[in-house]
Amino acid sequence: MRFQMPHAGAVVASVLPLLCGLAQQGTPQVEGETLHAEGETFAVRSLWRSERILDGHAKEGLAICEAVARAAGAGARDTPFEIGIAPSPRGLRRMMDAAPQHALSVPAAPFSGRQVPAVVAWPALHDRVLFLVHLPPATRRQLAVQASSMVLPVAEADSAGTLLVAAQAGLEAVGASRPLAEEPWSSTGLLELKRLLEDTEDDHALLSRLLEEAVVDPSAPTTLPPGSRYAATAAEVAAMLWSRLPEASLAGLQRAAESSAPRWEVRSGAVATHEFGWCATGTGWGDALMLSSEPVESTRYTITTEFFVLSNNMRYPAQADIAFGGQGEERFLLACNSKEGIYLFRRRKDGSGYDGLCERKDIRVPVGQRLPVRIDVDEDRINVTVGGVELDPVRVADRSLGGVFGIGAHAGSTALFKDPVLVLR
């Protein structure tokens, strides 16, 4: 049995209505046209010549920056602040003599005879992804941080927490982030902070050290090496909680951290809020994966979601991943691959590799097409359905099938997911 592979034009036509406004008719840029967007407080400039469809990047970036300005209480300007969007770290290095390798942002890049701060699209995505998923998670957040540093007064901009809170407020306002405990980037930092507090005997000393370590400096380049996990540190989250307290005290900060309920932990790559639900992006050097912070305790449960997957890198087939039953380093992984088929794996306890449990090599998961997924766990049995195709039932008798669950994308892939729904039976 095979999925019917639709024509490429039909794939795009079926996907775009889900993501309203994500793409325009792609036509070559002609003389006099621009790829820029200007608002009351900011102007976002595209620092490379490409197709008109990439104009959406500047518009999306402007919406984020303007929302940050409103969150920071900044008004209109006669001459707007300028921020550039460069193509990729490699593209930025071609534009500049001193750009660092794997740059995510630089304080100054050339544009029309002047220098503007710039962020880059990381990871480097080819056009199929650019047309459909907007700016990558790291680029969006770095834009917001850069914008907050430009509109906040100097005294406030010296505080990492104040910068990050304004950036977070702007991202939430345009639907590019969920609240701290729900957004994978910040939720990961909250989990790390809570674990550190549980493991220390001197909470105040720990929190004081973390607040000193929390530094955000847009005047210096930032880098993001390939395969790096993109998530907040405990220090960054501590600074954000501190700046939100009406009367800042270490005791109040500790209470705020301990009472938080982070939902997700990014284990690798980047995962963030998206119009479809979630966007998981793996580079050519590593996968993306986020897992729930709390394990499923029941022995009978169902996980349902919907996904479509795209390729970031033509050297790799596109693959969406759904994990469940995670206990320590062991977990089960449903891999939906555009060339290899659908597989259910069991990750070994020592994390050294995966063992196959069942497979459908005759299936080719269509790129850019929505597919529903249902995973039923009943005591020691696993039943999986992907796009209406059932895998052979699997029985696991040596351990409970409860544990953490989550979503991700294989190396070289971007996968968009609807929120996974967990139902205990």
Offer a few descriptive terms.
about 425 residues, 7-stranded antiparallel beta sheet, 11 helices, 22 strands
Query: How many distinct beta strands?
Result: 22
Rg, rounded, reads 22 Å
Shape, per Cα inertia axes: globular
Q: Mean of the pLDDT scores?
A: 87
Helical segment count: 11
The biggest beta sheet reads: 9 strands, antiparallel
Q: Decide which structural class fits the backbone.
A: alpha+beta
Low-confidence stretches: 1-33
Helix fraction bin: 25-40%
How much strand?
A: 25-35%
Q: How far apart lie the N and C ends?
A: 31 Å
Describe the protein's architecture and organization.
- By secondary structure, this protein is an alpha+beta fold.
- The protein contains 11 helices and 22 strands.
- The strands form 3 sheets. Strands 8, 9, 11, 16, 17, 18, 19, 21 and 22 form a 9-stranded antiparallel beta sheet that branches. Strands 7-10-20-12-13-14-15 form a 7-stranded antiparallel beta sheet.
- The longest helix has 17 residues, at 55-71.
- The radius of gyration is 22 Å and the shape is globular.
- The two termini are 31 Å apart.
Summarize this, please?
Helices cover about 30% and strands about 30% of the residues. By secondary structure, it is α+β, with helices and mostly antiparallel strands.
